[in-house]
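pinging the channel bc i need a second pair of eyes. not urgent but kinda urgent?? the chain im working w is below, pasted from the shared doc
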Amino acid sequence: MSDSSHTWRRYLTDYNEGLGLVYERFVLNDFLEGLRRRHGLERVLEAPLYGMAGVSGINSYVLAQAGVDVTLVDDNPERLAGVRRIWQEDLGQPVNLVAIQPDEWGQLPFESRSFDMTWEWAGLWYIQDPEGLLRELARTSRNLVFVAMPNNIQVGYWMRKLVIDREFFASHDERWTDMGRIRRILESAGVEILEQGVLDVPPWPDTVMPANEVLKRLGIRSRRLEEQFTGEGWQWSTMAYYMGQEPDLRERVMKYAWLDRAPLPWQIKAIWAHHRYLLGRVKG
């Protein structure tokens, strides 16, 4: 299923994503960099490239910066063209961009065991064949498979579902937030699960939209709050950090990562975490 809201178009040119998304990217960057170092990743596939809100197609940039050969897949030509421009003009890093048809997620155009890691972030409920993609992630990896989806028990998820974004849940299949279901599919495709856990655990709920928009949808009208979450003083852009315009951005944002870094069982963090993940290894 394709994204019906088309909010991604805005972020192909407007890089102001909001504090929550910038935080999410930095936490994910740390996790991916840890995998690269521990497992010697040299060639990685991310499919689909769209799942996280904000700027599309930049989740794997931290790996490309470290010299990893990155391949991204999408079924939307317009979005793919925008991502190509971002990588060429603003990031200045090589990337392999592959276009497929919306019904081809179960038959990716890569040979088996082509990549050191295959992965996706929050994208399963946007595509036509999520189960087919999971099996393809297993087929095309020679080592790791990493899958993450929104955490369906945390408070922001239910706020979004019941109050502020009900139309999204009317058109997207929530079964793809069931990590047990995803695990069974991966295991049946020959993936041994190495670990499960949570990522993206900041001190605010996950509403997948800017704070000012949340206030509007909740019917809260306050000039003071509106000014707090808009204007030049409320600009948050991972791209500005990547392009060297805000070198202190990571330091400013990651001061909120105390819960992500807390030595607590992931099951406790899951009450508030925005995403759950599985990390597996292809058997044999």
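so DSSP finds 14 helices and seven strands in the chain. and The first strand starts at residue 43 and ends at 46. — does that match what u expected or am i reading it wrong
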